[in-house]
């Protein structure tokens, strides 16, 4: 991690200086940053930034949602939860402190209150580190829209695992239009609801679901459950929005029945074997080709590349326009080969 004094500006990356660190739980902390020239960061509530982090001798990229609100532009904040064995989350939680500088790409992401269809009544459902975009959306609405109606449903293993516990309680006490519902799986304290969140509990907690907008972020199984509870109640899914933090690992073909193809990158004079269970990103990285895989989940767009010839299967085209898709662009993290390929980065 660089100290501010040793920073040399990298084009297209914005230097962010850490100005505060707050321990949230035993395995999560919030970090506040300011820009090096104190100019505000332009972002929408719910968006993320991609940090470039040097770990050992490797340059890694990871996405972190901004938990701060654009309505308070004096700083931006992220909240990181430790992933067991994870390279960047452990590195940042172990080393990042005020005075350090990180480089970040400009904020991005479609999971935000401005671009997604939304009603003034929200239900924000999150679990674990998934609280970050939801709290940003809530904070922004509370600052800008007095008539907003927010149900904030947060799930954690136990009260000790509740991220931003004090801030959630403060918002609940300070705003009549912010209702906090804390669900814990074990050791509930006064005011907590014993989880897990099932269809009956969901219905009991949010009887007035119709007319609300759902934003949800958490583990895949959690969001799948919310989606199925909502659709079972004939919810208008145009107002259902979810964000995944976890790399897409579910492969269409298992490693056992994978078929091997050739991938060529003539631009760099390189070719490599790719099997149908691998993502393009895995193979491009192994071949040391210059691709950035920041989210590995098909949401950030950093791994966009073009299939010049060949057949592929893609799980996500989230950040691609229709023109991009027509021109052969894919997200390498979410795309697998179905024939020999020629690609361009
Ligand atoms: C749009 C977006 C926003 C994000 N916002 C946040 C945020 O606000 N706060 C936050 O803490 N994280 C957030 N993440 C996750 C973050 O980008 C990293 O994936 C996470 O910190 C793990 O990185 P790592 O280098 O420590 O783990 P890695 O070394 O990349 O992975 C180690 C192992 O953990 C698995 N893994 C990776 N990420 C996760 C995860 N999130 N949960 C469970 N298993 C995982 C990997 O598949 C791998 O097996 C976000 C991700 C995306 C795509
Ligand atoms: S790495 Fe983010 S979309 Fe592929």
From TrEMBL:
The keyword Lipid metabolism does not apply. This is Flavodoxin reductases (Ferredoxin-NADPH reductases) family 1. Keywords: 2Fe-2S, FAD, Flavoprotein, Iron, Iron-sulfur, Metal-binding, Oxidoreductase. The keyword Cell wall biogenesis/degradation does not apply. GO terms for molecular function: 2 iron, 2 sulfur cluster binding; metal ion binding; oxidoreductase activity. Residues 257-345 form the 2Fe-2S ferredoxin-type domain. Its cofactor is FAD. In the N-terminal section; belongs to the FAD-binding oxidoreductase type 6 family. Residues 11-114 form the FAD-binding FR-type domain.
